[in-house]
Amino acid sequence: MDLSQNDSLHLLDNYYKNGTGQQIDTITLKRWFYPTVAAFAFIGLTENTVSVMALWFIPHRPWAPFHYLLLYLAVADWLLLAVCFVPALASVIGMAGDGQGEAQITCAVTVISDLSCYLILPPLMATTGLVVNQYVSVVKALSYSTFMTKRRTFTSIFVPCVLVTAAYLTFHGITCAASPKSSCMEHFEQSKYFLAREYFLACAIITLSVFNVIVYILIFAKAHEVTLRPVTGSPVSSQNKLATTVALLLGTVLLFWIPGTLTSIFYIIGNQNPGHFDQDMEFSLNTLQLASNIMFFFNPIVDPFIYGLRLREVREGYRLLFRKFKSWWVGDEKDFLTHRLSSSAGNGKVFDDVVTVNGAVVREISHMDMSQEI
Question: What is the distance between the alpha carbons of residues 302 and 165, in angstroms, rounded to a whole number?
Fold first, then answer.
Protein backbone atom coordinates (compact mmCIF):
# COMPACT_ATOMS: atom_id res chain seq x y z
CA MET A 1 0.00 0.00 0.00
CA ASP A 2 1.00 3.60 -0.37
CA LEU A 3 3.40 5.24 2.04
CA SER A 4 0.57 7.30 3.49
CA GLN A 5 -1.80 4.43 4.22
CA ASN A 6 -2.03 5.49 7.85
CA ASP A 7 -2.79 9.03 6.77
CA SER A 8 -5.57 7.78 4.51
CA LEU A 9 -7.20 5.87 7.35
CA HIS A 10 -6.59 8.37 10.13
CA LEU A 11 -5.35 11.79 9.10
CA LEU A 12 -8.04 12.10 6.47
CA ASP A 13 -10.40 13.19 9.24
CA ASN A 14 -8.03 15.94 10.41
CA TYR A 15 -6.35 16.83 7.15
CA TYR A 16 -7.87 20.32 6.98
CA LYS A 17 -7.81 21.34 10.63
CA ASN A 18 -5.03 23.86 10.08
CA GLY A 19 -6.35 25.27 6.81
CA THR A 20 -8.36 28.42 6.22
CA GLY A 21 -11.13 27.19 8.48
CA GLN A 22 -13.38 25.91 5.69
CA GLN A 23 -13.99 22.22 6.37
CA ILE A 24 -14.11 20.13 3.20
CA ASP A 25 -16.45 17.16 3.40
CA THR A 26 -14.38 13.96 3.21
CA ILE A 27 -17.18 11.51 3.92
CA THR A 28 -17.78 10.90 0.22
CA LEU A 29 -14.13 9.98 -0.27
CA LYS A 30 -14.18 7.61 2.67
CA ARG A 31 -17.39 5.96 1.53
CA TRP A 32 -15.77 4.70 -1.65
CA PHE A 33 -12.17 4.41 -0.42
CA TYR A 34 -12.57 2.04 2.53
CA PRO A 35 -14.86 -0.49 0.80
CA THR A 36 -12.60 -0.45 -2.27
CA VAL A 37 -9.51 -1.08 -0.14
CA ALA A 38 -11.26 -3.90 1.73
CA ALA A 39 -12.44 -5.50 -1.53
CA PHE A 40 -9.05 -5.36 -3.25
CA ALA A 41 -7.26 -6.57 -0.11
CA PHE A 42 -9.64 -9.52 0.20
CA ILE A 43 -9.12 -10.48 -3.46
CA GLY A 44 -5.35 -10.26 -3.03
CA LEU A 45 -5.46 -12.24 0.21
CA THR A 46 -7.38 -15.03 -1.49
CA GLU A 47 -5.02 -15.12 -4.47
CA ASN A 48 -1.84 -15.09 -2.40
CA THR A 49 -3.17 -17.70 0.03
CA VAL A 50 -3.68 -20.06 -2.90
CA SER A 51 -0.28 -19.08 -4.34
CA VAL A 52 1.57 -19.76 -1.09
CA MET A 53 -0.08 -23.17 -0.84
CA ALA A 54 0.70 -23.94 -4.49
CA LEU A 55 4.36 -22.97 -4.03
CA TRP A 56 4.52 -25.15 -0.94
CA PHE A 57 3.03 -28.11 -2.82
CA ILE A 58 5.72 -28.05 -5.51
CA PRO A 59 7.12 -31.54 -4.88
CA HIS A 60 10.64 -31.29 -6.25
CA ARG A 61 13.45 -31.18 -3.71
CA PRO A 62 15.75 -29.54 -2.99
CA TRP A 63 14.15 -26.21 -3.77
CA ALA A 64 16.16 -23.75 -5.84
CA PRO A 65 17.03 -20.25 -4.52
CA PHE A 66 14.48 -18.79 -6.92
CA HIS A 67 11.75 -20.87 -5.28
CA TYR A 68 12.59 -19.63 -1.78
CA LEU A 69 12.60 -16.02 -3.00
CA LEU A 70 9.30 -16.54 -4.81
CA LEU A 71 7.74 -18.04 -1.69
CA TYR A 72 9.08 -15.08 0.31
CA LEU A 73 7.41 -12.68 -2.15
CA ALA A 74 4.08 -14.50 -1.88
CA VAL A 75 4.19 -14.49 1.94
CA ALA A 76 5.23 -10.81 2.02
CA ASP A 77 2.38 -9.88 -0.32
CA TRP A 78 -0.06 -11.87 1.81
CA LEU A 79 1.12 -10.21 5.04
CA LEU A 80 0.87 -6.71 3.55
CA LEU A 81 -2.65 -7.36 2.29
CA ALA A 82 -3.74 -8.86 5.62
CA VAL A 83 -2.49 -5.85 7.58
CA CYS A 84 -4.21 -3.49 5.12
CA PHE A 85 -7.45 -5.46 5.16
CA VAL A 86 -7.95 -5.27 8.94
CA PRO A 87 -8.12 -1.45 9.33
CA ALA A 88 -10.05 -1.06 6.07
CA LEU A 89 -12.67 -3.58 7.19
CA ALA A 90 -12.84 -1.95 10.63
CA SER A 91 -13.46 1.41 8.97
CA VAL A 92 -16.20 -0.03 6.74
CA ILE A 93 -17.92 -1.58 9.78
CA GLY A 94 -17.53 1.69 11.68
CA MET A 95 -19.13 3.69 8.88
CA ALA A 96 -21.96 1.18 8.53
CA GLY A 97 -22.78 1.58 12.21
CA ASP A 98 -22.79 5.37 12.04
CA GLY A 99 -25.77 7.13 10.55
CA GLN A 100 -23.62 9.87 9.00
CA GLY A 101 -21.05 7.52 7.47
CA GLU A 102 -18.28 8.52 9.86
CA ALA A 103 -15.78 5.90 11.00
CA GLN A 104 -14.36 6.16 14.51
CA ILE A 105 -10.65 5.42 14.18
CA THR A 106 -9.41 3.53 17.26
CA CYS A 107 -5.86 3.23 18.50
CA ALA A 108 -5.63 -0.41 17.42
CA VAL A 109 -6.71 0.47 13.87
CA THR A 110 -4.18 3.30 13.78
CA VAL A 111 -1.34 1.03 14.94
CA ILE A 112 -2.15 -1.64 12.34
CA SER A 113 -2.57 0.99 9.64
CA ASP A 114 0.79 2.52 10.49
CA LEU A 115 2.42 -0.92 10.37
CA SER A 116 1.13 -1.44 6.83
CA CYS A 117 3.29 1.48 5.67
CA TYR A 118 6.44 -0.38 6.67
CA LEU A 119 5.23 -3.72 5.34
CA ILE A 120 5.33 -2.43 1.79
CA LEU A 121 9.12 -2.79 1.89
CA PRO A 122 9.39 -6.63 2.22
CA PRO A 123 7.57 -7.30 -1.09
CA LEU A 124 9.80 -4.77 -2.84
CA MET A 125 12.88 -6.34 -1.26
CA ALA A 126 11.67 -9.81 -2.26
CA THR A 127 11.24 -8.57 -5.82
CA THR A 128 14.75 -7.13 -5.69
CA GLY A 129 16.04 -10.54 -4.60
CA LEU A 130 14.30 -12.16 -7.56
CA VAL A 131 15.80 -9.56 -9.88
CA VAL A 132 19.32 -10.18 -8.56
CA ASN A 133 18.78 -13.94 -8.83
CA GLN A 134 17.62 -13.57 -12.42
CA TYR A 135 20.56 -11.30 -13.23
CA VAL A 136 23.06 -13.85 -11.93
CA SER A 137 21.33 -16.71 -13.76
CA VAL A 138 21.44 -14.83 -17.07
CA VAL A 139 24.76 -12.99 -16.91
CA LYS A 140 26.80 -15.51 -14.89
CA ALA A 141 25.07 -18.78 -15.64
CA LEU A 142 28.20 -20.92 -15.21
CA SER A 143 28.80 -19.70 -11.65
CA TYR A 144 25.12 -19.48 -10.67
CA SER A 145 25.07 -22.49 -8.34
CA THR A 146 28.26 -21.30 -6.65
CA PHE A 147 27.07 -17.73 -6.11
CA MET A 148 23.39 -18.30 -5.24
CA THR A 149 23.85 -20.68 -2.32
CA LYS A 150 21.12 -21.60 0.11
CA ARG A 151 22.86 -19.66 2.88
CA ARG A 152 23.02 -16.47 0.82
CA THR A 153 19.41 -16.90 -0.20
CA PHE A 154 18.21 -17.16 3.39
CA THR A 155 20.41 -14.21 4.35
CA SER A 156 18.83 -12.08 1.61
CA ILE A 157 15.42 -12.97 3.05
CA PHE A 158 16.27 -12.55 6.73
CA VAL A 159 18.26 -9.29 6.61
CA PRO A 160 15.52 -7.14 4.98
CA CYS A 161 13.01 -8.35 7.59
CA VAL A 162 15.40 -7.34 10.37
CA LEU A 163 16.02 -3.93 8.79
CA VAL A 164 12.31 -3.16 8.43
CA THR A 165 11.64 -4.24 12.02
CA ALA A 166 14.56 -2.15 13.28
CA ALA A 167 13.34 0.91 11.37
CA TYR A 168 9.82 0.51 12.75
CA LEU A 169 11.01 0.17 16.35
CA THR A 170 13.56 2.98 15.98
CA PHE A 171 11.10 5.57 14.68
CA HIS A 172 8.54 4.77 17.36
CA GLY A 173 11.20 4.57 20.07
CA ILE A 174 12.50 8.03 19.24
CA THR A 175 8.96 9.42 19.17
CA CYS A 176 8.14 7.87 22.56
CA ALA A 177 11.37 9.24 24.03
CA ALA A 178 10.53 12.73 22.77
CA SER A 179 6.98 12.60 24.19
CA PRO A 180 6.96 9.97 26.95
CA LYS A 181 3.56 10.98 28.37
CA SER A 182 1.65 11.15 25.11
CA SER A 183 -1.38 8.91 24.60
CA CYS A 184 -1.72 6.44 21.76
CA MET A 185 -3.52 8.83 19.41
CA GLU A 186 -1.26 11.74 20.38
CA HIS A 187 1.74 9.57 19.56
CA PHE A 188 0.55 8.99 16.00
CA GLU A 189 -0.63 12.58 15.50
CA GLN A 190 2.87 14.00 15.86
CA SER A 191 3.80 15.47 12.49
CA LYS A 192 7.54 14.93 13.06
CA TYR A 193 7.03 11.17 13.24
CA PHE A 194 4.97 11.10 10.04
CA LEU A 195 7.48 13.29 8.24
CA ALA A 196 10.42 11.09 9.32
CA ARG A 197 8.54 7.96 8.30
CA GLU A 198 7.64 9.37 4.90
CA TYR A 199 11.24 10.47 4.24
CA PHE A 200 12.54 7.02 5.13
CA LEU A 201 10.00 5.07 3.09
CA ALA A 202 10.19 7.42 0.11
CA CYS A 203 13.99 7.14 -0.02
CA ALA A 204 13.84 3.35 0.39
CA ILE A 205 11.27 2.87 -2.37
CA ILE A 206 12.97 5.28 -4.77
CA THR A 207 16.31 3.54 -4.20
CA LEU A 208 14.82 0.07 -4.74
CA SER A 209 12.89 1.22 -7.80
CA VAL A 210 15.94 2.79 -9.46
CA PHE A 211 18.07 -0.26 -8.64
CA ASN A 212 15.47 -2.66 -10.04
CA VAL A 213 15.03 -0.64 -13.22
CA ILE A 214 18.80 -0.55 -13.83
CA VAL A 215 19.16 -4.30 -13.26
CA TYR A 216 16.10 -5.03 -15.40
CA ILE A 217 17.66 -3.04 -18.24
CA LEU A 218 20.87 -5.07 -17.92
CA ILE A 219 18.89 -8.31 -17.94
CA PHE A 220 16.85 -7.18 -20.92
CA ALA A 221 20.02 -6.27 -22.81
CA LYS A 222 21.47 -9.71 -22.11
CA ALA A 223 18.21 -11.41 -23.05
CA HIS A 224 18.12 -9.43 -26.30
CA GLU A 225 21.67 -10.58 -27.01
CA VAL A 226 20.56 -14.17 -26.50
CA THR A 227 17.63 -13.80 -28.90
CA LEU A 228 19.99 -12.44 -31.55
CA ARG A 229 22.01 -15.67 -31.37
CA PRO A 230 19.59 -18.48 -32.20
CA VAL A 231 20.54 -21.91 -30.97
CA THR A 232 19.98 -24.88 -33.24
CA GLY A 233 17.17 -27.01 -31.90
CA SER A 234 16.05 -24.35 -29.43
CA PRO A 235 12.57 -22.94 -30.16
CA VAL A 236 12.33 -19.20 -30.71
CA SER A 237 9.47 -18.91 -28.21
CA SER A 238 11.69 -20.32 -25.48
CA GLN A 239 14.39 -17.77 -26.25
CA ASN A 240 11.90 -14.89 -26.16
CA LYS A 241 10.22 -15.99 -22.94
CA LEU A 242 12.82 -14.41 -20.68
CA ALA A 243 12.62 -11.06 -22.48
CA THR A 244 8.83 -11.05 -22.28
CA THR A 245 8.81 -11.84 -18.56
CA VAL A 246 11.37 -9.12 -17.86
CA ALA A 247 9.25 -6.61 -19.79
CA LEU A 248 6.19 -7.55 -17.71
CA LEU A 249 8.04 -7.19 -14.42
CA LEU A 250 9.55 -3.87 -15.50
CA GLY A 251 6.07 -2.61 -16.37
CA THR A 252 4.87 -3.68 -12.92
CA VAL A 253 7.59 -1.61 -11.26
CA LEU A 254 6.82 1.50 -13.29
CA LEU A 255 3.05 1.22 -13.08
CA PHE A 256 2.46 0.28 -9.45
CA TRP A 257 5.43 1.57 -7.43
CA ILE A 258 6.10 5.06 -8.79
CA PRO A 259 2.63 6.66 -8.32
CA GLY A 260 2.60 5.88 -4.60
CA THR A 261 6.10 7.27 -4.20
CA LEU A 262 5.09 10.50 -5.93
CA THR A 263 2.12 10.96 -3.61
CA SER A 264 4.44 10.49 -0.66
CA ILE A 265 6.60 13.31 -1.99
CA PHE A 266 3.49 15.51 -2.29
CA TYR A 267 2.68 14.65 1.31
CA ILE A 268 6.15 15.74 2.44
CA ILE A 269 5.88 19.01 0.51
CA GLY A 270 2.47 19.72 2.01
CA ASN A 271 3.67 19.13 5.58
CA GLN A 272 6.84 21.17 5.19
CA ASN A 273 4.96 24.09 3.65
CA PRO A 274 1.67 24.59 5.52
CA GLY A 275 -0.67 26.76 3.52
CA HIS A 276 1.41 26.31 0.36
CA PHE A 277 -1.55 24.64 -1.37
CA ASP A 278 -5.04 26.10 -1.36
CA GLN A 279 -8.01 24.05 -0.19
CA ASP A 280 -8.91 22.80 -3.67
CA MET A 281 -5.32 21.73 -4.36
CA GLU A 282 -5.10 19.94 -1.01
CA PHE A 283 -8.31 18.09 -1.75
CA SER A 284 -7.02 17.11 -5.21
CA LEU A 285 -3.71 15.87 -3.81
CA ASN A 286 -5.50 13.91 -1.12
CA THR A 287 -7.73 12.30 -3.76
CA LEU A 288 -4.63 11.46 -5.81
CA GLN A 289 -3.08 9.92 -2.72
CA LEU A 290 -6.09 7.68 -2.20
CA ALA A 291 -6.10 6.65 -5.87
CA SER A 292 -2.41 5.69 -5.73
CA ASN A 293 -3.19 3.67 -2.59
CA ILE A 294 -5.64 1.65 -4.64
CA MET A 295 -3.06 1.19 -7.40
CA PHE A 296 -0.62 -0.36 -4.95
CA PHE A 297 -3.01 -3.26 -4.44
CA PHE A 298 -2.67 -4.27 -8.07
CA ASN A 299 0.97 -5.21 -7.44
CA PRO A 300 0.32 -8.13 -5.04
CA ILE A 301 -2.79 -9.03 -7.04
CA VAL A 302 -0.90 -9.24 -10.35
CA ASP A 303 2.21 -10.99 -8.95
CA PRO A 304 0.59 -14.45 -8.67
CA PHE A 305 -0.54 -14.24 -12.29
CA ILE A 306 2.95 -13.33 -13.52
CA TYR A 307 4.78 -16.24 -11.91
CA GLY A 308 1.77 -18.56 -11.84
CA LEU A 309 1.13 -18.46 -15.58
CA ARG A 310 4.73 -18.31 -16.80
CA LEU A 311 6.45 -20.87 -14.54
CA ARG A 312 5.46 -24.47 -15.19
CA GLU A 313 6.69 -25.62 -11.76
CA VAL A 314 4.24 -23.20 -10.16
CA ARG A 315 1.50 -24.41 -12.49
CA GLU A 316 2.33 -27.95 -11.38
CA GLY A 317 1.97 -26.77 -7.78
CA TYR A 318 -1.48 -25.40 -8.59
CA ARG A 319 -2.46 -28.71 -10.18
CA LEU A 320 -1.28 -30.63 -7.11
CA LEU A 321 -3.10 -28.21 -4.82
CA PHE A 322 -6.38 -28.51 -6.71
CA ARG A 323 -5.96 -32.28 -6.83
CA LYS A 324 -5.47 -32.20 -3.07
CA PHE A 325 -8.66 -30.18 -2.65
CA LYS A 326 -10.45 -32.69 -4.85
CA SER A 327 -9.11 -35.59 -2.80
CA TRP A 328 -10.36 -33.92 0.38
CA TRP A 329 -13.76 -33.41 -1.21
CA VAL A 330 -14.24 -36.89 -2.67
CA GLY A 331 -11.95 -38.78 -0.29
CA ASP A 332 -9.61 -40.04 -3.01
CA GLU A 333 -6.32 -39.51 -1.17
CA LYS A 334 -4.65 -42.41 -3.01
CA ASP A 335 -5.08 -40.67 -6.38
CA PHE A 336 -3.40 -37.54 -5.03
CA LEU A 337 -0.45 -39.43 -3.57
CA THR A 338 0.03 -41.34 -6.82
CA HIS A 339 0.10 -38.12 -8.83
CA ARG A 340 2.49 -36.47 -6.36
CA LEU A 341 4.90 -39.40 -6.47
CA SER A 342 4.80 -39.48 -10.26
CA SER A 343 5.55 -35.75 -10.34
CA SER A 344 8.54 -36.29 -8.06
CA ALA A 345 9.88 -39.22 -10.08
CA GLY A 346 13.22 -39.02 -11.80
CA ASN A 347 15.20 -38.28 -8.63
CA GLY A 348 14.14 -34.63 -8.68
CA LYS A 349 15.21 -33.97 -12.28
CA VAL A 350 12.66 -31.71 -13.80
CA PHE A 351 13.79 -30.28 -17.11
CA ASP A 352 16.80 -29.36 -19.16
CA ASP A 353 17.92 -25.80 -18.58
CA VAL A 354 19.38 -24.25 -21.68
CA VAL A 355 21.55 -21.26 -20.89
CA THR A 356 23.30 -19.23 -23.56
CA VAL A 357 26.58 -17.68 -22.44
CA ASN A 358 28.69 -15.73 -24.95
CA GLY A 359 27.30 -17.76 -27.82
CA ALA A 360 27.83 -21.13 -26.15
CA VAL A 361 25.13 -23.46 -24.94
CA VAL A 362 25.41 -24.91 -21.47
CA ARG A 363 22.92 -27.67 -20.66
CA GLU A 364 22.28 -28.42 -17.03
CA ILE A 365 19.79 -30.71 -15.38
CA SER A 366 18.86 -29.05 -12.11
CA HIS A 367 16.43 -29.39 -9.25
CA MET A 368 13.57 -27.09 -10.19
CA ASP A 369 15.77 -24.27 -11.46
CA MET A 370 12.90 -21.94 -12.13
CA SER A 371 15.26 -19.01 -12.57
CA GLN A 372 16.16 -20.40 -15.98
CA GLU A 373 12.53 -21.21 -16.76
CA ILE A 374 11.55 -17.58 -17.09
Answer: 26
